[in-house]
Specification:
Keywords: Hydrolase. By secondary structure, the protein is of the alpha+beta class. It is 36% helix and 13% strand. The strands form two sheets. Strands 1-2 form a two-stranded antiparallel ribbon. The relative contact order is 0.13.
């Protein structure tokens, strides 16, 4: 994505951006997901990143900040919904039991797809997000 941003002439089409990105990422589904961050402002002839790359880059480390060390000490007791892509290596079957220890009120929804659930199964993903509401008890 930085390669797209660093072009001397700004990128003007998604196909042009995809061609640049394909030099680094062979999977078209992953490229399609990454390219969803590109947009065109009204009246402009070039694309720009909706979420600036420096913000994305500085936020990546925070995604893994949960202290996965000891589930007896570090637990998230509130309802948690994990959307899992069964053809992705990030949450393999053998991790389910351990995840349940860190997140005792966990609901895991499996999707038969690769890592990018939102692009491969958009309708199903949108439907699954409502499950979290059924997990939260109503206020008194």
């Amino acid at each position: 994505m930085r390669h797209i941003q660093s072009q001397a002439t700004p990128v003007s089409s998604l196909s042009e951006a995809d061609a640049l990105l394909s030099q680094f990422e062979p999977d078209p589904a992953i490229r399609l997901f990454l390219l969803t961050n590109l947009t065109r402002k009204s009246g402009k002839d070039h694309l720009h990143f909706r979420v600036p790359l420096d913000i994305l880059s500085s936020s990546l480390d925070a995604l893994g900040d949960f202290p996965y060390t000891d589930p007896r000490k570090n637990r998230f007791e509130k309802p948690a919904l994990i959307v899992r892509a069964t053809r992705s290596h990030y949450l393999p079957d053998h991790s389910k039991e351990l995840m349940q220890k860190f997140f005792p009120n966990l609901k895991m929804v499996d999707f038969d797809c690769g890592h990018w659930v939102i692009t491969e199964k958009p309708h199903e993903f949108r439907q699954s997000r409502f499950l979290i509401f059924s997990m939260v008890p109503p206020r008194a």
